[in-house]
């Protein structure tokens, strides 16, 4: 019978331990343990050093790491930019339903479009021992992907397409080009956009860049843009539309980043006595339930958000169960033409 060594078991290669955190923070292992477990008071300076070292190294407590390797929790985490956004909410609902069918529980967090917050939320979910993660978009804190790779965490990105990571989504550039091309085909040459924040939002940034590129190809320029730096809300759509309509050189068409912003734009146009689509055309994005029932009904891009959530759940479950599954799944986005768009006034008067 072999003698048992008194040394501690070797830590799996790539995992970060207390010793690594203590070395990076220049404190004792006991101090690191106190900060992580909250078992005793430590100075604010020590606490900040330890927390900074944990974040930089991507440290996750050993208990959570063991849970990840054993797959005992049967919980999946998801981090979305804004829970109150209807598109994300519907996606999450479908994701949860699919996970529950397979016996998994969903744990949800909100990042507020802040990559550092997203990193903290992911770390917290990993600390809880989630078996997998669902993320939104392709751009994250630069420390996030190395941490997931180091820990071997199953994850999938949604609302985007990328060839180098698991994802379920659509081509945002192609979607924006589709709706811009439609407006130009109607005769619009003065097109504005009411978009969500582009900083830390690769989806919105890609759509605006695509609009600008297409218009430049046709010898046109984006008339103006109004960036909504808050979550996509109806009030933000109203305020942005008010600004566009107060311009001496009004656009003849406005592309909104989602249906909520478009709803706000329609309300503001009506309140100012501006006819839609007689004087100005407005488009949305997502095709939420109410889009067809607005006055006028909203022209928008239909994104099958429920399908996206269900497919993301399928990817996570299949991966955890060792079943083959496509790493990249593209969903179809389609243009739905309704009454909020028409040729611009000058074009109609000549036809």
From TrEMBL:
Domain HTH lacI-type: 16-70
SMART domains xrefs: HTH_LACI
InterPro entries per the UniProt record, alphabetical: HTH_LacI (IPR000843), Lambda_DNA-bd_dom_sf (IPR010982), Peripla_BP/Lac1_sug-bd_dom (IPR001761), Peripla_BP_I (IPR028082)
Keywords assigned by UniProt, alphabetized: DNA-binding, Transcription, Transcription regulation
UniProt GO molecular function: DNA binding
Domain of life per record: Bacteria
Name of the protein this chain belongs to: LacI family DNA-binding transcriptional regulator
Organism placement in taxonomy: Bacteria, Pseudomonadati, Pseudomonadota, Alphaproteobacteria, Hyphomicrobiales
